[in-house]
Amino acid sequence: MLESVEHLLLLFGLAPALLLALPFEAFALGWAVAFAHCAFSAALILLFIEFRLQEWRKIPFTCSYVPGRRNLWHSVWGYLFLFGGLIPAITHIESSLLNAALLWAITVVLALVWLVFRSMRRRQLKETCLLFDESEEPLISTVQLTAD
Questions:
Q1: For 131, phi and psi rounded to 5 degrees?
Q2: What is the secondary structure of 39-95 as a DSSP string?
Q3: 134, part of any domain
Q4: Which of 73, 92, 146, 147 is the 20 to 30 Å CA partner of 108?
Q5: What total number of domains does the chain contain?
Q6: Which contiguous run of DSSP H or E holds residue 127?
């Protein structure tokens, strides 16, 4: 049902990232490690895409979106945490995995986990309805405090 969303993410998210990084990795690390790292990155990105699509029930471009629903400071602190702490930590972990055999072993495990989650999501999609929502959310929402 939502194969187009998945194909869009793969075509414009996964493919460019891998194709742009591969020559640079091959130059810096050699072709064996570069291909292994490319496969590892593909499996990891596929797993991230799958996690994001687990609860996705909206038909693209049909549901209303109101920008600015999130507090600006939550976004700022989230990005600071991401760029200041999480990315350097992941980079350190990933640099310790620059062994082709180890990367292939982890890639196989990640690919198997991805296949399990993908089959679960596809089974759930057959049982649930897609959301088509044209109504806009109110600009100001009430707290709905009532005395019961």
A1: -100, 125
A2: HHHHHHHHHHHHHHHTT--BPTTTS---TT-S-HHHHHHHHHHIIIIIHHHHHHHHH
A3: no
A4: 92
A5: 1
A6: helix 100-127
User: What are the Cα distances from residue 100, in Å, to 16, 37, 114, 121?
Assistant: 22, 7, 21, 31
Position 87 in a domain: no
pTM over 0.85: no
Highest averaged pLDDT of the listed ranges 43-47, 85-89, 95-99, 143-147: 43-47
Closest CA to 38 of 17, 63, 60: 17
How confident is the model over 81-123, as pLDDT tens digits?
888 888 888 888 888 888 889 989 999 999 999 999 999 888 8
Please tell me whether residue 131 adopts helix, strand or coil conformation: strand
**Residue 7 to residue 15: CA distance in whole angstroms:** 11
